[in-house]
Write a structure and sequence with these properties.
The structure is a homodimer. Chain A has 10 helices and 15 strands. The first copy, chain A, is of the alpha/beta class. The interface between A and B is medium-sized, with 33 and 33 residues.
Chain lengths: ~350, ~350
């Protein structure tokens, strides 16, 4: 069976916002799996802000995607050929398969997902890296205590929306910061956040004074930039700032903006701590089981923004993340025949 | 006995570097102590970078000095009248007595110092708030382990010079960053730092690569600005950045500079934590005893930069801190008759 593979490969390192021309689209015969490998037909591609940082050269928590390489992406697909003892034809599998229709895997970083438990796209969102990032970042790095005030930026995104809900489940007051009245209404009315602040329309500092009169105990930051500065100015004594992301800075053309008032960490005897979700890999199963339990009980709600299309549409769909168009987990669902 | 008091009072809130005119100098009769109070003749005034931040309005870890108030300062003096049961005439006492020749105290924040153990100026430096800041900041916030690499900025200052020496005592590799070849030579030749980097003349990143090839485990930062960014780019996995001060930013006329590459905290799974020495007040005695032991054994060396003068010279002496002229603890020793 000769299959035609469609791929997006990195063509150039963007300055500022990426453009479609930063990837090259190509079609070529899909390779066959070798001994100890399987071939997967990718069905869902996870779109994540971190992808922008993978396009840059230089030191980060993962190596950059090299020019000419298939763009890195997590995804879920079905095994269509297997010469691997642990994966059988028909298995639904999660892995870092890249932005392409067919991928070869030796099984490293891959795991079967149970789509009877939840649809595939949920395994990329609340039950996937997004949910795990929210879970470990909030609970292990942020360590909120019941009754404390937790602020989440990028709160309508895939990670932020879960982080705020976990804070509520743990008995904290959850305040979300998001862009737009619709997203803010969703946070409060649908997800049960105690308050939401529309950073595009409202005075964030005044709103924080109102909704966090005793200060912010935990700040789960996905955004950076001005929003980070606003929250630093309102930290409670002993606060923990969790660095999950800095989406406002990923497309900066000059030097990114550091928090000018970072010495508020001294005033508040507070800490700002970075983490990388991969360090918690040996506890993923425990966390995913907990998240699945909350989904089942209805305490946690998951939302995916699924765009149906083909591999070639990847660049334009990715850009929705940076224009603030998506709510919840952004996923590209690949259509078409095998 | 009518005594003439000389005082520096805050006259205006400076923008940028303070000028002598930001204080008003005045002489007036010294008040008499009331019941439960004592009067001290101030002999040594501690000059600290933090004084600049006390001149600003707004939220900090202590209230600002108000316009018209005597400039806040720690000092050491001799009790000359007492109606306080715990302090006798002739006692040498540490306290926050202000920039003035005579002060009235009700004893709060005051304690007797043993000048037979060490000269008074040492009680403002290695055995005072500077030494305590180095001790608790490094050991409690930085938590270095033997064999780890500790970098200290402002290393030739009162806090930095002690912090680096404690790191050595605890079996760490100590690297100091300071301005000028003379200070750097002092750090290595006299204080036993493993290396020193002259940020005014050398490529700090290249020097860090050379002297900290496995990265920086603990960064004790007194400086902020560019130096902070250079070190963030070299953090080892799990590093701790201790925010002790940001002297490079205290006189900034615009917004202070935040670390543009603060997301290196994520890459390195590192934390940046602020602290305020006053929170450790109930452990000062334990730490001072430890510091005194190291001074006696010769493991720790103390240096004071004592300027003899009168109260009126306070502004010009303070400015030496910001021009990088002092090495070790800067102290104004008041001369003249009672």
């Amino acid at each position: 069976m000769t299959l035609t593979n469609a791929q997006c490969r990195l063509a150039s390192r963007p300055t500022g916002l990426p453009e479609a021309s930063d990837w090259s689209y190509l079609e070529e015969p899909a390779p066959e799996p070798g001994d100890g490998e399987f071939r997967v037909q990718v069905e869902y591609i996870s779109l994540d802000p971190a992808m922008r940082s993978w396009m840059n050269a230089g030191r980060s928590y993962v190596p950059p995607v090299e020019i000419g390489e298939v763009m890195r992406a997590a995804g879920i697909g079905r095994v269509i050929d297997s010469r691997h003892s642990d994966f059988d034809v028909g298995d639904e599998v999660y892995g870092v398969f890249g932005v392409q229709r067919y991928a070869i895997s030796d099984g490293s970083g891959a795991r079967r997902v149970d789509t009877s438990l939840a649809p595939a796209q949920v395994h990329l969102g609340a039950l996937g890296i997004s949910g795990l990032t929210a879970y470990f970042g909030l609970l292990e790095v942020g360590r909120p205590e019941p009754g404390q005030t937790v602020v989440v930026s990028g709160a309508a995104g895939s990670v932020g929306s879960i982080a705020g809900q976990i804070a509520r489940i743990k008995g904290c007051r959850a305040i979300g910061i998001a862009g737009g009245a619709q997203k803010c209404a969703w946070l409060v009315d649908e997800l049960g956040f105690d308050a939401a602040i529309d950073y595009k329309a409202e005075d964030v500092r005044a709103q924080l004074r109102e909704h966090a009169p005793d200060g912010v105990d935990v700040f789960f930051d996905n955004v950076g930039g001005e929003v980070l500065e606003h929250v630093l100015a309102r930290l409670a004594r002993g606060a923990r700032v969790v660095l999950s992301g800095a989406i406002s800075q990923y497309n900066a053309t000059g030097a990114p903006r550091g928090p000018a008032n970072y010495m508020q960490l001294l005033v508040a005897r507070a800490s700002m701590t970075g983490f990388v979700i991969f360090d918690y890999a040996d506890r993923y199963a425990e966390a995913a089981a907990q998240l699945a339990g909350w989904l089942r009980s209805g305490e946690l709600r998951s939302r995916e923004d699924v765009v149906r299309g083909d591999v070639e549409q990847f660049p334009e769909v990715l850009l929705r993340l940076f224009s603030g168009q998506n709510t919840g987990k952004l996923v590209l669902a690949l259509e078409g025949e095998r």
